UniProtKB/TrEMBL annotation:
Residues 5-148 form the N-acetyltransferase domain. This is Ribosomal protein S18 acetylase RimI-like enzyme. GO terms for molecular function: acyltransferase activity, transferring groups other than amino-acyl groups. CDD domains: NAT_SF. It holds the Pfam family Acetyltransf_7. The keyword Ion transport does not apply. Keywords: Acyltransferase, Ribonucleoprotein, Ribosomal protein, Transferase.
Length: 154
């Protein structure tokens, strides 16, 4: 993990960078997703109007650059995305650790069944499968799964 990376709460001024990370990460890590229909401006508006208002959001910052973000709604990890070039440097773990500090009773999330890398990441961090879904509960209509982390569950 990089000693230079720090986690801080996101602010409105971060919205354009969070939107860019969201779009780039999904395109790089999940090429099986349907083509993105929203442009950067629309995703930035969604970050401002929905993500930052409904979730607690943190960003990982190295130097002056935001490398990734995580958004927590109650005990549901709604988003954890990194810039494609920031992957495999421990930054996702730093963000996940911050989210877990704010969810001492446990944490759930949804992941696409096809997303083997994300599934492996969460498994390494103690998440277990709660439920398999057929995709009817997500916008992409792709099979997904619900994972859960409970402290001391290992």
């Amino acid at each position: 993990m990089s000693d230079e990376t720090r986690i801080r709460s996101a602010v409105e001024a971060d919205a354009p960078v969070i939107a860019a990370i969201h779009l780039a990460s999904r395109a790089a890590a999940m090429p099986y997703l349907p083509p993105q229909k929203r442009n950067h401006e629309q995703v930035t508006r969604w970050v401002l109007d929905v993500v930052l208002k409904e979730c607690r959001v943190w960003v990982a910052v190295t130097g002056a650059e935001i490398d990734g973000y995580a958004a927590l709604d109650g005990d549901l990890l709604e988003h954890l995305y990194l810039r494609p070039d920031a992957r495999r440097r421990g930054i996702g773990t730093l963000l996940l650790d911050e989210v877990r500090r704010h969810s001492p009773a446990g944490l759930s999330l949804h992941v696409f069944q096809q997303n083997a890398e994300a599934r492996a990441f969460y498994e390494r961090h103690g998440f277990t499968v709660l439920e398999l879904g057929d995709g009817q509960g997500n916008m992409e209509k792709l099979p997904d799964m619900t994972l859960r982390w409970t402290p001391d569950a290992r």
